[in-house]
Structures are given as structure tokens and as C-alpha cells.
Amino acid sequence: MARIDAFFKLLHDHSASDLHLVSGQQPVLRIRGDLERVKYKVLDDDELRAMLYEITPEDKIKTFEETGDLDFGYEIPGLARYRANFFRQKNGIGAVFREIPTEILTVEELGLPPVVAKLALLPRGLVLVTGPTGSGKSTTLAAIIDEANRRRKEHILSIEDPIEFVHQSKSCVINHREVSTHTNSFGTALRAALREDPDIILVGEMRDLETIRLACEAAATGHLVFSTVHTVSAAKTVDRVIEVFPEGEQNQIRSTLADVLRAVVSQALFKRIDTKGRIACLEILIATHAVRAMIREGKTHQVPSAIQTGKKYGMQTLDDAIMGHLQAGRISPDEAYMKCVDKTKFKPYLNEPPADFTEV
């Protein structure tokens, strides 16, 4: 048992999402969104480095020593998997670990809208799950992939950096590939994927031009592609994908995206006030013919209106999702106000003036 495993057990026992270990500071847990210090001594750089290197593969240590940054996965059998990030900072080495549960919750167990489960049954196209870091994108994607795994008889290929949720093959055959461990890059893996007979491809993150281009090409050639993007709304997701391309290519990618996009699920995570834990509020965009025309013609500013009028297709605005949870007593008025789009709808629920004076 590695010395650091005691911290992971503490993380798990407190139902925390993240563990921060930084030279010159005490260990810190993120519990229900808030950082809380652990009653432990201040971590010394040499001691922490030795502790971290004990669980790090030799080739990963070499990468970190050369670059100052590292991502990889670590697993404690019977407890959980962890997404690890190492970095250099002023006082020495630092690391943040995110717990990835071994149990994959279903769409129903997560309380997500039924249309989310239907995304797993699409024959082809591109589905994007978006939101800021720590908003639960990976958990939602895992639930969708699990739905496909149970209800389809196909080949699912996962390309991640690092591997997070580990799916066991059920009705589908699932293969997990980790960037830098099993393949050199997302681009390399996506090119190879087309020769590996996949039906569904999960791309952990569309983070650069090459990955976005190849993911769109895979969707255009008849595959169902799922991925994540760090954006805060459905409309901004479409703009983000297009703006990554050089200006001379943007008309072409706008046309391609209009053809291949099937849905965008944009989410934010809220603390629950009725019970322990957190809950996701989702904005859902379904790529109807009208939405595709907006994308093709560069009228993405009309997308929010399309979402508001598209409830019969399973669409919903983020504010509607927030309001539903607020009125059900699941989330606080203050957090609802802070994370909503239209502040005027939520201001009457506040007992005190808003904390963010810039939003007044």
C-alpha cells in the first residue's frame, strides 16, 4: 500500500471530489464544492515528491521532470480510480486528484432528463457535453455510454487522457485507449480508429484543431461521436468549435458541423440543500433542421431562442432547469442566482442583495 493511499481513503470517506496536495501547505479536500483543509502537517516538497513518485510510472516521472506538467490515471482496487495532475509551483511540487467512482450511475439515477438517454441510441453524428471544469461532464458521458453499452450490440472505442470511467463490456464490446500510454495523441488514435471498426467513439476532450477536425470527420463518415468541450452554453459551444478553425476554413466547418451535430448538453453543478451531494442542471440543444440552418448561416445568436421553443424535441434552457430544482427545494436561491443566465427571473427568490455586485 502506497503512503498516499491514506489520503485517497480520506477523500473517499468524506465523499469529496478532489484532493489537493501542494508543497508548503496542508492537504485540502473539495467537499460539495468547497475546499476544506485536512488536520495534517504542512507538506514538505521532498516528502511530497517522494510520496507522489511512489505511485507514478517511471516514464511519467520522466515526462514531469522534463515538462513540469503531468496527467495520468491511478487506481486503488476496491476503492476508486483517480485522475491525477502534477504541476510545479512556487514552493515545489503540487498535485490534484479527482476521484472517478467505480460505479457508473445511469441517466435515471443521476436525475437527468430522459432525452439524454436517447442520445445513446442515435445512429450517427456528433454529441457534445460541455461545461466548466468540475461540472460533471465525465459523469454524464459515462451514463450515456453505459446506456449504449446495455442497449446496443456494437463496438465502442474510448480515447481519453487519462482514462476515467472504466466500462465493462455488456451488450457492446468496449475498448479504452489512453493518450500517451496506448497512443501518441488524440489525432493519432482517431486516425487509427477508422480502421478499428468502431460504431461509437468517445473522445475525452476536443481540445485542439486536429482533434476537432478528425472528430467531425468521424461523425461525417457514419460514426456516433461523443466528446466534451469547456464552454458554458450550447450556443457558445457551436461558436467555439467554429472559431478554432482558420478564418478561411470557417465556412466549410460551419457547413460540416451543421450536418453532423446532433445535440449539445451544457451543464452546471449545484450543491443540494435537501440532502448531501450535488446535482446537475442541464441546457439541452437538439440539432433540428432549424438549428442546423442557423449554424450553416452563421446565426448562432438565434440558438437560445430555438432552445426556448424546442421543448417538444426535449430541449430546455439552463434557466428552466435551474428554476425546476430551485422550486423543488433542491438548490439554494443564492447559487441559482449566481449561475443562471437571466438574473431578473431569480432575483425575487433572494433574501439578501446578490453577492456578485457586478451582476446588479
Can you describe this structure?
This protein has 360 residues and is of the alpha/beta class. It has two domains: 5-100, 2-Layer Sandwich (Beta-Lactamase), CATH 3.30.450; 107-316, Rossmann fold (3-Layer(aba) Sandwich). The protein is 36% helix and 24% strand. The chain has 15 helices and 13 strands. It has helices at 5-13, 45-53, 58-67, 107-110, 114-118, 137-151, 186-193, 209-220, 234-243, 250-260, 289-296, 303-308, 318-327, 333-339, 343-346; strands spanning 18-22, 28-31, 34-37, 69-76, 80-89, 92-100, 125-130, 155-160, 173-178, 200-203, 224-229, 261-271, 278-286. The protein has a seven-stranded mixed sheet with strand order 9-8-10-11-7-12-13, sandwiched between helices. Strands 3-2-1-6-5-4 form a six-stranded antiparallel sheet, with helices on one face. β12 (261-271) and β13 (278-286) form a beta hairpin. α7 packs parallel to α8, α8 (209-220) crosses α10 (250-260) and α10 (250-260) packs antiparallel against α11. The protein is globular. The protein starts with a helix and ends in a 14-residue tail after the last helix. The mean pLDDT is 94.
